[in-house]
Specification:
By secondary structure, the protein is α/β, with parallel strands linked by helices. The chain is built from 11 helices and 8 strands. The protein starts with a strand and ends with a helix.
Length: 252
């Protein structure tokens, strides 16, 4: 049985005061005994203070991005070692906004994933199709390409999480139906069998990310191959994020 993970990607939101209030609100509503992992991914400058804010809770911290090199003349970038210093355990790699706004593609994303796992952290590798791809019937082909260009058997499966995020459902208010999401998740898992083997693919967690909210979380998270959620806007409201964490337990 795969342990559910609910991750919140804050993106470019929250000052220090706002971040402390948000974390306090989530901690207040958390059932620490619940069999679910919880991850928050704040902006990089908030990682150190948030590491202090989550002490005593089950909340883990993740980063939203990383540079693939260990060090060097890369103004404005951060390395895996620097993020590890803050208390990070996970790093998002290949998020659709990094792909479509900042132009990051397969070869660079592959280097980032390897840098993360070689640095001892867990990579959350994000994949997903655009609306144009889906309407043209290319969803599975896009998924296959994104898996093939980054994931190989030398990446430890226990340091990898895959997040399926249909680009057309991020920040748009649109959400894939539970059946649509499950279809893609099942396909991803079948492709992971080709990368690893059936046993490792069965244990590897696959998250859904695409306008997950308290109202739709339970039906999405009830699907057999959906092991949690990568939450965007709803993670910025303590009550909503806590409700999604509760929904995964209801759906189990």
């Amino acid at each position: 049985m795969r342990k559910p993970l609910i991750a919140g990607n804050w993106k470019m939101h929250n000052t220090l005061v706002e971040a402390r209030a948000l974390v306090a609100g989530v901690v207040e509503r958390l059932d620490e005994s619940a069999d679910v992992d919880v991850l928050m991914c704040p902006p990089v400058q908030l990682l150190f203070p948030m590491a202090k804010a989550v002490v005593g809770s089950k909340i883990m911290l993740g980063a939203q991005n990383v540079h693939e090199e260990q060090s060097g003349a890369f103004t404005g970038e951060v390395s895996v070692a620097m993020l590890k210093d803050t208390g990070c355990s996970h790093i998002l790699v290949g998020h659709s906004e990094r792909r479509h706004i900042f132009g990051e593609m397969g070869d660079r994303i592959a280097k980032k994933v390897r840098a993360v796992v070689q640095g001892g952290l867990t990579a959350i590798y994000c994949i997903g199709e655009t609306l144009e791809d889906r309407e043209a019937g290319r969803t599975m082909a896009v998924i296959d390409q994104q898996i093939d260009e980054v994931l190989t058997g030398d990446i430890p499966a226990d340091q990898l999480i895959v997040a399926y995020e249909p680009v057309w459902a991020i920040g748009t208010g649109k959400t894939a139906s539970p059946e649509q999401a499950q279809e893609v998740h099942a396909h991803i898992r079948s492709r992971l069998v080709d990368v690893y083997d059936a046993g490792k693919a069965e244990k590897l967690r696959i998250l859904y990310g695409g306008s997950v909210k308290p109202g739709n979380a339970a039906s999405i998270l009830a699907q057999p191959d959906i092991d949690g959620a990568l939450v965007g806007g709803a993670c910025l409201v303590a009550e909503d994020f806590a409700a999604i964490i509760s929904a995964v337990l209801t759906a189990a």
